[in-house]
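assembly run, all chains below
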Amino acid sequence: MDCKNAQTLIAGYLDQELDPVRSSEIEDHLHECVACSKVYENHQVLSAALKTGSVYSNAPADLQKRIQRSVRQAAKAESPPRWLSWSWARMAAPMAAAAIVLLTLVPFLRGPSTEEILTREVVSSHVRSLMANHLADIPSSDQHTVKPWFSGKLDFSPPVQDMANQGFPLVGGRLDYLNNQPVAALVYQRDKHLINLFIWPSDKSAPAEVARLTRQGYNLIHWSRSGMNFWAVSDLEERQLEEFAQLLKNQSPPPQ
Amino acid sequence: MEEKDKLARFEQIILPHMDAAYNLARWLTRNEHDAEDMVQEAYLRAFKFFSTFHGMDGRAWLLTIVRNTCYTWLHQNRANEMTTMFDEEIHSVDTDTSNPATLAMRSADHQILTRALDELPVEFREVVVLRDLEGFSYKEIAGIANIPTGTVMSRLARARERLKNILCGHPKEKL
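ok done. output:
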């Protein structure tokens, strides 16, 4: 990272608005660059001085009263003349309109869906595994070493296949935690791109539709098969990740 | 919504944020009297459009209206200020000659800090006020000021840099 970039990102770093990757890049830069770390220190001083609230202007007390009064007057002016409340038709139209607005809004008011929360967890796990130098608990390209390693650590046995012949060599395996449960994470590689494949038992017996998503520049594909959920995530381009998923699906044992 | 309910909800959700509304209006207009007018007008507008408020953050919603009210007023009454060019980007990286200790001393004096903040172009002033005085997240600021989140970050970096230069009497700072 050069100084120009760093000084644009410095605000985000100071305000803790950067993602972990960017944040650690800036941190590294600040460690080695005296000029930028001085800029950072100065901005910190300024932000702290402003946050004391010494220059905050509170509303004058009489303004509060004045506004409350004028809002109440506005409310009075808005209230409908009495004859309106007799008429059903007049009541029905705004109520129908309100119902439509409400129905359209309900999906947005609920906050993130469980699927969205899980998607975020998967992306974070992927990013963390690349950052923290903790890609694999068991670094091995041998499926017969990786698969037994999971037994005793998980109450299920994830399917493990090396796909080096198809261009996706197995790098290793790791225990991870997703969706409130321990899961198996298999790491594969394609050229310089790493793929995390998370596997855990599915509570639905029917195989679920394949779904493709993109979050923060990562591609995700998930499906379930043979009673297991599979989530693949990588910075690999979509087509190649799709190929990876297809290979896995063809190789997994048929549902019993 | 029943008229009575509307008033009660408005008084409960929106009215308590008057300090934030006034503070933003004061910093955008740089004048206490104009700020009062802006807040009053913004509140009446907010009440009128309260039916479009759907349970988001009341303070952010109100400040969006305060900001729009102030900008309309600035365009009508302070058009010359609005055309001031301001640099969004960091062009060159100068060696920083200011001293954090001096900066800390100057910015601790609230009169000096007020004057310096008033000197910033309005687009810079507003992001500093929304972030450091109101504590909004970049996403919320982006919503209030109607700019992309990335712009919030670059403006803040630039604004703090300028503010520092003003406070430390940096000769290179063009205003």
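Chain B has two domains: 3-82, 100-167.

Chain B has a mean pLDDT of 87.

not gonna interpret more than that til we talk
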